Amino acid sequence: MNDQPPGFDTPLSGPPPGAYGVPPPASKPRTSLSVALERSRNRLMVTAAMVTLVFTAIGIKLVDATLLSHASEPRQRMAAEIDAPPVNRADIVDRNGNLLATSLATQSLYADPKLISRPDEVAKKLSVALPELDYKELLGKLTGEKRFVWIKRNLTPKQQAAVFRLGLPGVYFEREERRFYPASNLASHIVGFTGVDNNGLSGLEQSMNKRLVNEPNKPLQLSIDLRLQHILKKELTATIQEFSAIGATGIIFDVRNGEVLSMVSLPDFDPHEPPPLNDKAGQDALFNRATLGVYEMGSTFKIFNTAMSLDSGKIKVTDVFDTTHNVSVGRFTIREYHPFHHNLNVAEIFQESSNLGSLHMALTVGVAAQKAFLTKLGLTRPTALELPENGWPLVPNPWREINTMTISFGHGMSVSPMHTVTAAASTINGGVLHPPTLLKRDPAAEVPGEQVIAPQTSAMMRRLFRFVVTDGTAKAANAKGYVVGGKTGTAEKQKGRHYERNSRMSSFLGAFPMHDPRYIVYVLVDEPKGTKKTYGFATGGWVAAPAVGRVVKQIGPLLGVPPVDDASPEVINATYINTAGQTIPPGPPPPPAQSKGSTVASVPPPSGKQR
């Protein structure tokens, strides 16, 4: 029977199922193995694709780095960053960026005695490689019960290489930092030094330790100028040698903002190898005479006595005081170093450095007023300087009339040179007391200060400063073109309960230029001896004043102070004063008289004849 529709001669499809006795195909079930194989194949393909992608990216980066990014130039900055040790302590630099202290990576050597089988042999080899080690002491460390012992801290690269070549089991290197001081002794009393663990032990390293550690990437910039430091130290050293002194100190100070531009104390020390404290020489070298030492300043204190007297309104510069009669107090007699045969006014008392005149001026002002004035100048408390070595003044208690007498000429009260310089700056800069600082001030920030004397008093003090150099005890301090002024000081040193007549502190506090003061240069010399050149004298005018003059000549150009004509009207009008206390300079001499209608100068007649 044909089941096809009419009009079709051939079937539309193949034979019906089972037409030839072959059963229809049946789908086989998928096994777990085939499923697992298929998943594994898919994962491998994904992994291969990812690996291919990664290596393609790496290849692209290599091509870029080697062919497209200036491969001929080594990447030094990156290499430096990779090899650079961690910085744990900030650098210290001077005002011009010169390095004063920095930290460098070093290797320290330590051992674990429990891992050393033959300590005697190890100790012997290390003693040969590092001859400074003591064999017996080292052997004692290596045979002890501790698991950690230091052998040597902060090895040099040469020492490290020598130990490394030994290949000793149980001996290891530890990376550390060591502080280095490129200026060495030149700024040792300012910068100070650190201990073996890099903690500050003196100077700014100690007082600014927290700042140096907390901000390791920000250098600490000081007000110190390394060039001025070198000049000041050179001149102090020469003065010590010339006068066979036991020490000296000097300060260069900016009177306008209180910055300390230079500070030297001699003897000094190498901060890499600080001297021991168990001997006199070590103690002397570590002692900062500029800030920690307090001394009776002698006649430089007459600066403050004179400023106090004039500022009180009770005394004028023309007032005259008794300088011919000695003053007896109990069993003591106060007299002049060089007796005067007539009374002196205030200008002459300052010029000639009269003790008796200063005494009577102080008594006129009064005990309470003197104490209050010196306190206002900061002379009864430590300065604000950023050093741990900051001396306390020695002041009388109770403060009686006899104390007022002796303090007026610089005895009976002890202060540091930094006290003296800071207070003196306020007497010539317009009357403003600026706290001293070793840190460079921000030029845009307001300078801290307190008005302590009247501007007109300060103007008179500038004239008196100049008077001492032009006509007084400090002519040797004059530096042509820099209008130097100042005050000498000589004080006998007290040893026990007595003053030693041949043991003195000689000083000079100079300032320049006096018509527009900018800087103070202070020099103090400890126990100078007179020489043939100074006719046996060792006072401030003979010892310290010449040193200040030499310093001024050298630092003036570096500080940008242009030399001027000392006799110019600008200078004379701002600095003139005479022995009568007059501050108006004399006018030019009148021209010679001329005959009426004559244009010919008169000529003296021949000898003995009149016209």
Explain what this protein looks like in three dimensions:
The protein is of the alpha+beta class. The protein has a domain of 371 residues: 3-Layer(aba) Sandwich (Beta-lactamase). It has 19 helices and 18 strands. The strands form six sheets. Strands 1, 2, 3, 4 and 7 form a five-stranded mixed sheet that branches. A five-stranded antiparallel sheet has the order 9-8-18-17-16, sandwiched between helices. A hairpin with a 5-residue loop joins strand 5 and strand 6. Helix 9 packs antiparallel against helix 18. The chain starts with 31 loop residues before the first helix and ends in a 36-residue tail after the last helix. The N terminus and C terminus are likely disordered.
Architecture blueprint of SSEs:
Elements: H1 32-68, H2 76-83, E1 92-93, E2 99-111, H3 119-129, H4 135-142, E3 149-155, H5 157-166, E4 171-180, H6 188-191, E5 193-194, E6 200-202, H7 203-207, H8 209-214, E7 220-221, H9 226-243, E8 247-254, E9 260-266, H10 280-286, H11 302-312, E10 320-321, E11 327-329, E12 332-334, E13 344-345, H12 346-352, H13 355-365, H14 367-376, H15 401-408, H16 417-428, E14 432-433, E15 450-451, H17 455-471, E16 485-495, E17 498-512, E18 519-526, H18 540-558, H19 569-575
Helix pairs in contact: 3-4, 9-18, 11-13, 12-17, 13-15
Domain Penicillin-binding protein dimerisation: 86-197
Keywords: Carboxypeptidase, Cell cycle, Cell division, Hydrolase, Membrane, Protease
Region (Disordered): 1-29, 579-611
